[in-house]
Write a structure and sequence with these properties.
By secondary structure, the protein is an alpha+beta fold. It has 6 helices and 12 strands. This is Gnk2-homologous domain-containing protein.
């Protein structure tokens, strides 16, 4: 039985390369001839190389039972330079944290990378991986309606051509959605919808939350007293609004979680009490 446990680590800062969570299979390579090790090293090297050209890629190294498939995904607002910087951090981290696991996934603030042997079990793209819920809460139908509207905007946005990365806001509720690069627009919308439903179930009345599924993740933050002025007035208006939305979600993450999952700039923020939790997933036996 393959078991891959998910483990969070709390970190401070807005660095795209900060660690969020890992999943490592308990089962290790049985590799007296080093075939798996060589295939894995080739795979990771190829993925790192590709990250300087595009923000998502998949590849396979090796053949038959020794083949290893892997992928990386960078957050939609990252340039290829920043994507490459993020992805290039992961191979050494995976080696240190997961050793010779037959499957692994490592999530940083700005990107993730995963690999698995060819015979590793397959799961749905909406398989639940990890969640974080803020400690502050807002009760009442007004908050629920705002959150539902913002979630619907995100779902419709990716289905109607905004791409596989979305940031938006509705009446002080900011939302971000990211899908894996091999999803179509409708599948992305469906994945985000599942993630939004899951975060409402898991986080209930929390004013901020995140949910990671196998093929997508979402984050939201609500500011009942309005968003502080955190964007630069010298930025072009369109870029300023986009940055403000992304930073708004990040600030919510700082206040609620004690770590940043998405952020475009360094932000000073007061850290508040947090709670985080993960459950069984593809990575559990």
């Amino acid at each position: 039985m393959v078991v891959l446990g998910l483990f969070p680590v709390v970190v401070m800062g807005a660095d795209d390369t900060k660690f969020v969570f890992k999943g490592c299979a308990d089962q290790k390579f049985q590799d007296p001839s080093d075939v798996y090790t060589q295939n894995l090293n080739t795979l990771l090297s190829t993925l790192v190389s590709q990250s300087s050209e595009k923000t998502f890629s998949t590849t396979t190294s090796g053949q038959d039972q020794s083949a290893i498939t892997g992928a990386y995904q960078c957050r939609g607002d990252l340039t290829t330079d920043k994507c490459s910087t993020c992805v290039s951090k992961i191979p050494k981290m995976i080696e240190k944290l997961c050793g010779k696991s037959i499957a692994a996934r490592l999530q940083l603030n700005g990107c993730y990378l995963e690999y698995e042997v060819s015979w590793f079990k397959q799961v749905a793209g909406t398989e639940f991986l990890y969640k974080v819920c803020g400690s502050s809460q807002e009760t009442g139908s007004e908050f629920e309606n705002k959150r539902d509207t913002a979630f619907s905007m995100a779902e419709d946005g990716v289905k109607n051509g905004s791409g596989l990365f979305y940031t938006g806001d509705y009446q002080s509720l900011y939302v971000l959605g990211q899908c894996e690069g091999d999803l179509g627009a409708n599948d992305c919308g469906d994945c985000l919808k599942t993630a939004f439903q899951r975060v409402k179930e898991e986080c209930a009345d929390s004013i901020s939350g995140q949910v990671y599924l196998q093929k997508c993740y979402i984050s939201y933050s609500y500011y009942p007293n309005g968003l502080p002025n955190i964007s630069s007035s010298s930025s072009p208006e369109g870029k300023k609004q986009h940055t403000q939305r992304t930073v708004a979600i990040a600030v919510g993450g700082l206040a609620a979680f004690g770590f940043v999952v998405v952020c475009l700039m360094c932000i000073k923020s007061v850290m508040k009490k947090q709670r985080h939790q993960h459950r069984s997933s593809k990575y559990d036996g």
